[in-house]
Amino acid sequence: VCKLCGISRQSVYQREKRAAHRQVELIPIKQMVLELRRYMPRIGTRKLYSLLKPKLQEQGIKLGRDALFDYLRDERLLVQAKRSFTKTTNSRHWMKKHPNLLKDYKPRHPEDVLVSDITYVQSDEGVHYLSLVTDAFSRKIMGYELSNEMKATDVVKALDMAIRTRRYGCSCIHHSDRGLQYCSGVYQDRLKKGTIKPSMTDGYDCYQNALAERVNGILKQEFLLHECKDIVELKQLVKESINIYNNMRPHLSLGMRTPNEVHEKANC
Q1: What is the pTM for the complete model shown?
Q2: What is the span of the domain harbouring residue 46?
């Protein structure tokens, strides 16, 4: 076969030896991956590579991003996408809807634009609702509230937390869908008290609030995977997950930095 292919037997043995040596060299990577996935079970490979790269260089392991994809595929460690949909927005109501202020506007610094949305999460008790307020520039989750209902008085608690955790005194826009919770008097009064301008999507186009939807998806698909017995246990999981998301998970859109890193180091 070697003669037919025009190669020497020695080169075949050398290739086998290199492959065996490479296999041994890559053994530590699996443990590194599993350690990171203790905190971020469904983190994608690009972000995983960004976190692993300093450790690989420290141990003298040469492995590129594409090679990491191949390694994870061989070890069956690639994550599979999950898709689900439950409607949490009721925009067919009589309350005032505000215009979309973000059509031709791009956030310039932290706390310039806050985006809000509601998603559902489950425990053994049933369905619960998670309200999130996220900084559009740094992607940091500024406020959150988990409740058994989608009442405006519950949703406004996430906004209250976001206002308390603000660090900068710049003007601010709050963007959301046209759900009745965001149009309610209690929510709008709180925005006015915090000197925050309201902005809402046009009609029923969910893509106009895509960032908030994206953050919902990240939490549900990468973090909130443990089956909790009740809302108390689920609240603890949400708290830990948001802390990891803000402080450990890198974002491609942030140059592989974490949301908190971008938020704290910005000049407003």
Answers
A1: 0.74
A2: 2-75
